[in-house]
Amino acid sequence: MEEKIIQKPCAVQKIETSQGFSVSYKEHLLYSKYNPKKNIITAIENLKLLPGTIILCCSPLLGYGITELLNKFPSACLLVLCEVEQELFDFTTVENTLQFSDNRIINCTPDELNNLPLRLYDLATTGLYKRVTRLDMSAGTQFHKEYYDKLFTACSDSVMTFWKNRITLTKFGRRYSKNLFENLHYLSDSKPITDFFNTIEKPIIVFGAGESTQKLISSLQAQNENQSNFSKYFILCADTALQPLLKNGIQPDGVFVEEAQSVITKAFIGVPEDIHIFAGLSSIPNLAHKAGSKNISYFFTEYTKASFIENLISKSFMPPANLPFGSVGLTAVYYALKFRKDESVPVYISGLDFSYSTGITHTKNALAHILRLITGNRINSIANYSAAYGTGTEQFTDKSGKKFITTPSLKNYAIMFNNLFGDTKNLFDSGECGIPLAIPRAFPGPSEKKELNIKTSAFSQSHKNEIQNYLENEKKALEYLRDLLTGKTEFTGEKLSEEIANIVEPREYLYLHFADGWKFSMSQSFLNRIRTEIDYFLKLM
Known about the structure:
Radius of gyration: 28 Å
Distance between the termini: 42 Å
Strand content: 5-15%
Number of strands: 17
Oligomer: single chain
Number of helices: 15
Shape: flat
Structural class: alpha/beta
Largest sheet: 8 strands, parallel
Helix content: 25-40%
Strand order of the largest sheet: 13-12-11-10-9-8-14-17
């Protein structure tokens, strides 16, 4: 987070009262003139702390209450002293009021606060810290109230992001890694996704599965009396938007899929064999069989930070890597911008609404809509009203002026979209409903027909050999690790532990899905589980 704070010179005065010292700054007393310690001590007495809590102590000044906080600490807690106002921070330095030798305290300078959320994320990766709370230690916070609010929100989100990712990896991490190694076997026979980079001269339309997709399709059909005129556009879509397009007689030039579970295969039932599939290396491998090697191109989503992923990305055979956007629609937009010839080629998006109206969560003929039609009866309504009243949902006025529903996850995707693509040239929002996006609104107009000039290349034999060598080396390492864990080597004691750690630590796919898998452990329980995973992954090499 970045925020420039303009400092104005102003004297800070330490004022003696009948029950201790107060501080005067910018014509404000920052503690009570009667009993300076009382308010903060009372707040600490009423504070309920859980193990693993990071406390942001905002504007600590004279350090009142810090000793009492430390005495109250449960296990694995941390104090972070935060002072934004430079003159107040300098005052604490001169007065030497915040000099504590306790390793449970971090004292941040004003310049260090912008990087504090990232620092707390790194601390969360130790597995010790699980939440962030805030405690205003003086009235010094009033000078930058908005900044302190943003800092606390950013720090909380940072720690929670780590644990949300951990929950995702615990649930899906093993499947992601399984799919990755399976798809590596098909990679050398696929069409490189880089063949599409900087080649598309037609206007590009990216469809998601939101309600606005059907509205744009209807508009395009009215504009194009002859459906063959859709060839004037290069059409991409998210996996769940594929069926709605096909049902309307539109065959997209490419469909993006990242889903790791088999449920997504239902979206590909009855799909023409010549539709090109852009698949994440961690997506379900069955799609490679369905599409055929020449009709599939791979990209790689870095689903976690890990040594084995860094090692893979460094290999020349690996496809381009991207950050985990969480939404396949964002991934489709990301690569659509890479596909266009240059910035003069317009890219239109629709169906990335990040919201829905009451009873309707997706566009007509999307997978979710079809499943509601199949299961609907007198008891179960076809309309999905429960989605509008679930935990965390909120109502807002969308870009068309209607009442729509969103959720925290969908709203975060919209924020991510705006952060990633908000300043992109010739990227337009063609959705008629949903959360307003930070790009201009425009709709595809008449366009001249242009031919596609996509490169034709293939993985070289050296790349194929490199992939095979990589998988064989991983297999040998796992077989050696199995021997180490089963006592089939001569190593014992510290040397055995060192050999095991050297192999396991950089191969996080063996344990990242464990509930305690944020770091390697030499505990017997951990190694027993590693032993089970070895046989599972050996079958994939």
